[in-house]
Amino acid sequence: MKNSVRNVYLFPYILWIALCVVAPIALIVYDSFFDIEGHWTLENYEKFFTPVYLKMTLSSFWYAFLITLFSLIIAYPTAYLLTKTKHKQLWLLMIILPTWVNLLLKVYAFLGIFGTFGLANAVLNAVGIGTKQILFTDFSFVFVSVYIFIPFMVLPIFNALEELNPSLVDAARDLGASAWTTFRRVVFPLTLDGVKAGCQAVFIPALSLFMITRLIAGNRVITLGTAIEEHFLVTQDWGMGATIAVFLIMIMAFVVVLTGNRR
Amino acid sequence: MRRMKWGNVYLIFVFIILYTPIFYLLFYSFNSGGTMHHFQGFTLEWYKEVFHDTRLLIIVLNTLIVALLSALISTVLGVIGALAIYYVKSRQVKNTLLTFNNVLIVSPDVIIGASFLILFTIAGIKLGFVSVLLSHIAFSVPIVVLMVLPKLQEMSPTWIDAARDLGANEWHILTRIVLPFITPGIFAGFFMALTYSLDDFAVTFFVTGNGFSTLSVEIYSRARQGISLSINALSALLFLLTIVLVAGYYWISQKGSRLYGMWKK
């Protein structure tokens, strides 16, 4: 009797998994074998391995790598310093608060800041460098993306640092390790799980966010996400879009496995 | 001592970077000049424009309805899912369910959007309110599960045994013991689902079709046409709403933990 009651919970949940997780991914794989006229074909995969698409995949990887790297470089010290402050939970909340502002609005703000007469150029003028074209360059794309992702990188690293037992740091210092050695040999390895979680939370979306590239980078930067959006919503070539999506899913699975194995 | 000072400078710098775009938007929402540079004079014209824009107000209403409905339904489904995972005995099955649960959380929005677009087209669901609502429910469920499950695991299983020994049936166990205990988790899940739905752009963009629009999609299509200060005014209003929501969430989670603290005593 008990089991039947428990199956009452299991049934709707498994139905959700089947309909919303398994079916959509199966359909993406299925669609990737059809061309634009609806004929069964392997052409999409052949096309993916042509230089055009491979180059796009590589550059998408390169940008995602840069974005993850810069987010990490900025976020790690931030998280570290946050754990040393008084009222650290409040400051952490202040870091997270901007993520609740709609992403598009933040991107839109940069249209103004990076514009020809915007804040960034005003600063550059004041310093004496003069007006530069900032909008619609790859610099602006990387900058805005890093800006968007910093909180997602800070949060897991902050949590990992909070879990770190401070007596380990004291022990290392007592045994004569310098501050840098302590960081390199004790603190960083012990917070690696947080770093991995952060990298996962940044790298995968960085491959696929198409609205930032569209609004900030013009059409200069094309990521996997932009390509998928273009094939599905502009050229209506769902087969090719699905093929790129299949590769994005594989990359995603790979990244999850690579950054996974957390305790 | 010196170190700490440089540390503070760094933190202040990060905070300035994080908040500059937001306050930049808010500041120019009062600019009578109509651009996001060169502040000419103070005006509330753009706010007036927002409140007179019926189309925009309908879109705001749509967004709120979708967010509330999807958060409500996905909270119910998510609680059921968390209970399902909690009650499964086999470790392997549990982990498999959790893996499937997390697929939608790590999946990039484009993948979710594209796959749901295919799904709705094949299922014959017309793109519009229903498709947006369904996709929002779909991606909110796993978040609710993850918020509720830790609360369930905190609960001592002996309570359930005790209740059963005292003659409670499954329904009583659920409504009198389990649900009251996990209420803070349920509220947290509901709020997360609400914010995810309000915030979502990419998934909605794929499955929205022509007639129906949510706020994010509308902001995107307006921003693509260039700068219009009514977006700034709108963002100021949304920022206020966000602060209220965050304060509400904070209050509920504080209250939840206090209730829980009392419970433990």
From TrEMBL, chain A:
The record's section on Pfam families has: BPD_transp_1 (PF00528)
Transmembrane stretches in the record are: 7-30, 61-83, 90-114, 134-158, 201-218, 238-258
Report membrane topology.
Answer: Multi-pass membrane protein
Q: Where in the cell is it found?
A: Cell membrane
Which biological process, per GO, is one annotated for this protein?
A: transmembrane transport
List residues of the ABC transmembrane type-1 domain: 57-259
| Keywords on record | Cell membrane, Membrane, Transmembrane, Transmembrane helix, Transport
Give a Gene Ontology cellular component term annotated to this protein: plasma membrane
* PROSITE patterns reported for this sequence: ABC_TM1
Query: Which family is this protein grouped under?
Result: Belongs to the binding-protein-dependent transport system permease family. CysTW subfamily.
Q: What name does this protein carry?
A: Spermidine/putrescine transport system permease protein
UniProtKB/TrEMBL annotation, chain B:
Biological processes per GO annotation: transmembrane transport
Establish whether keyword Transmembrane helix is in the entry.
yes
Membrane topology type, per the record?
Multi-pass membrane protein
Its domain of life? Bacteria
Its keywords, alphabetically, are:
Cell membrane, Membrane, Transmembrane, Transmembrane helix, Transport
Any keyword ATP-binding?
no
Transmembrane segments annotated in the record for this chain: 9-30, 56-88, 100-123, 129-152, 173-195, 201-221, 233-252
Q: Which protein is depicted?
A: Spermidine/putrescine transport system permease protein
Q: Which organism is it from?
A: Anoxybacteroides voinovskiense
